[in-house]
Structures are given as C-alpha cells and as structure tokens.
Amino acid sequence: MQQITANVYVETAWVSGSSVLASSNSSFIVTSAGIVMIDAPMEPVNALKWRDIIDQKGELLYLVNTEFHSDHTMGNHFFPVPVIAHEKTKKWFESVCGPPQDARQKVLDRYPDSGPLIEDYQLRSPSITFDENLTLHLGDHAIELIHLPGHTPGQTCVHVPNERVVFTGDNFTNALQPSLSECLPLEWLASIDRLLDLDVDAFVPGHGEVGDKKAVREFAAFLGHCVETVGEAIEKGMEKAEAVETIEFEGVLIARHPGRAWQRKNVARLYDMLSAPA
Ligand SMILES: [Zn+2]
Fold first, then answer.
1. pLDDT digits (tens, 9 = 90+) for 216-233
2. Which pLDDT band, with edges at 50, 70 and 90, does 101 fall under?
C-alpha cells in the first residue's frame, strides 16, 4: 500500500491468483468524519486484509464503485456500508451479475480456496445512486463523484480537491490497455479531457501505477489511435468481420486481457459504436 497524500491510501499491486492484474486498484480517503473507500479488492483474502488496514485508520462510512465490472465490485460483500455508484452502474451490475444465488459460485470459480471466507457471501449492489454529480461533505473534505461515461456507460470518477487527487476508475489505466468491449468511445475521449481539466497532481487509475497528466495524455493518445484506426476502416467501407480479424491494438499497448478473442471484442465494440447513426 502507498500513502500518496496526507489522507489518501492506494494499493496498485494486489496479487490475485496467478496474475497481479486480476483486481482493480483499491483506495481510501481518511477524513475527520470517517473513511470513504473507492472500489473493493476482488479476492476475498485481499478484501479482508484491506478491511483490517482501514479499521486501523478509522470508521468506514461509504464505498464507491467506479464501475460495475467484477474486479471493482466482487469484494463489496466485505464492507457493510452503503455502496454508492452511478445509476447506470447499478442497472448493469444487476443485469450482468445474474441471480443472487449464483454470486457465491462466481467467487468460488475464480478463487476455489476462498470457500470458508464466503459462507454468507452476498452480492452487494449500490444502495445510493446518482445521475450527474454527488458530493460527500465529510469534515474538511468535499469528495466529488462525477459521471464520466467512457470505459463503461456509468463510469464515475472521484475528485478530492483538498488532496489534489482524482480516482479515474478504468477511464485511465496506466500503461495498460483496458477492455474496450463495453465502452462509449467518443464520450470516453471527452471524459479524459474533463479529467485533464481538473486541478490535481495525482491520477489514481483503475489499474496500474498512480500517474500524472503526462501518463493520462499518453493513455488518451492510445485511445485516440484506436478510435481513429477503426473509424478509418469504416470510412473505407471495410466490413465489421474484416475489421475484427485484421485490426488489433496489443502491438500498441499491453492488454490487461491478452489474446485475440479480447482484441476482436474490443474492435467489434468500437466498430458498432462508431458506425451507429448519431
Ligand atoms: Zn472495467
């Protein structure tokens, strides 16, 4: 765990199963009124470690999910406080997670040794939702949740002006290609511009090391390249089937989900979104 400002703590290197990339980053902000967490560690044993660390710093008040993907939300179970997310995140969360009785099995499929830690596992869906913005006023801290669609439609960033920090979720993954398979590409580029307009020093990504504006600009250039490449293919009249077979971005930026199948999904999504009538 790193302490990146007076009151902000971040873990960017969870070792989950065989891959350090399996969980999203986890963070929390300590205020004089209590603690706000951003995204939950995915693996049960890590979630319990994180809970112990937080308990030593104060009382946990809220957990914010920046998106619905399970690497940000599967660990919600271990933090019995209100979960806050964008209303679209709550909707998607429930539609992709399936029936509650399957939730424990999904954790077991991924972490077969975790059985004793999840006897009473519950999928904890957001209980507080918002549309555009929501600000938590805690002691001297204003913690601003801002809807910035991109990596997913309900994507949320958390801006903490006092600490000069923004938590970007997977709208920014440092030196790493995230999934593009549920993205809104043009909104995403606009959302990154809004992130870059914030007066902050630290950008805590959804995955990878904490970055600065330069790292975010490099990520934006990567995303711009993806959008431009698929956009040009559409303009030239290339069929979707050909695009997904011939275009790939793993040669440009290392992928969190390696392999052809994910590249096909990423290109297919960009093709659909960029060729849809406005
Ligand atoms: Zn994600």
1. 999 999 999 999 999 999
2. confident
Q: How many domains does the chain have?
A: 1
Give 22 Cα–ligand 1 centroid separation in angstroms: 11
Domain CATH for 87: 3.60.15.10
| DSSP secondary structure of 46-103 | HHHHHHHHHHHH--EEEEE-SSSSHHHHGGGGG--S-EEEEHHHHHHHHHHH--HHHH
d(CA 14, CA 36): 19
- Rounded to the nearest angstrom, the distance between the alpha carbon of 237 and the centre of ligand 1 is 30
Domain membership of residue 160 (yes or no) is yes
- Expressed in angstroms and rounded, the spacing between residue 231 Cα and the centre of ligand 1 is 23
Residue range(s) defining the domain that contains residue 142: 2-212
Ligand 1: distance of its center to the CA of 193 in Å?
19
